[in-house]
């Protein structure tokens, strides 16, 4: 696989934040909130994290792949498409809408 950019498989992300913590350039930011699941009869309620925002700053990313290697749920993958150049730094901030892998691969 060409190391062009990183894609997010949103349904696999558990918002554990390992990718953001392990990134050597701190180019990944994410926010999440907790939701409570409906317990089965006789069990206690459980909570799980729900992803709110996920952003990669391509101006800071050095394409090392540490985030992909460290993700315990394989929610980050190499995508063949290169990140296009931009005239403004703000245009290199990709939110989860631009990072989500849509081809189902």
Automatic annotation (TrEMBL):
InterPro entries, per the entry: 4Fe4S_Fe-S-bd (IPR017896), 4Fe4S_Fe_S_CS (IPR017900), NADH_quinone_OxRdtase_chainI (IPR010226)
Pfam families in the record: Fer4_7 (PF12838)
Listed GO CC annotations: membrane
Domain 4Fe-4S ferredoxin-type stretches: 4-33, 52-81
Keyword Translocase applies: yes
GO MF annotations, alphabetized: 4 iron, 4 sulfur cluster binding; metal ion binding; oxidoreductase activity, acting on NAD(P)H; quinone binding
Keywords: 4Fe-4S, Cell membrane, Iron, Iron-sulfur, Membrane, Metal-binding, NAD, Quinone, Repeat, Translocase, Ubiquinone
Annotated protein name in UniProt: NADH-quinone oxidoreductase subunit I
Organism whose genome encodes this protein: Tessaracoccus bendigoensis DSM 12906
């Amino acid at each position: 696989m060409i190391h062009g950019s990183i894609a997010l498989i949103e349904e696999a992300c558990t918002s554990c934040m390992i990718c953001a913590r392990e990134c050597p350039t701190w180019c990944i930011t994410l926010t999440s909130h907790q939701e409570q699941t409906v317990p089965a009869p006789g069990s206690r309620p459980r909570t799980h994290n729900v992803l709110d925002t996920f952003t990669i700053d391509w101006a800071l990313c050095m394409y090392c792949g540490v985030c992909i290697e460290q993700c315990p749920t394989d929610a980050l993958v190499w995508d063949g498409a290169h990140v296009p150049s931009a005239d403004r730094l703000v245009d290199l901030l990709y939110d989860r809408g631009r990072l989500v892998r849509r081809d189902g691969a």
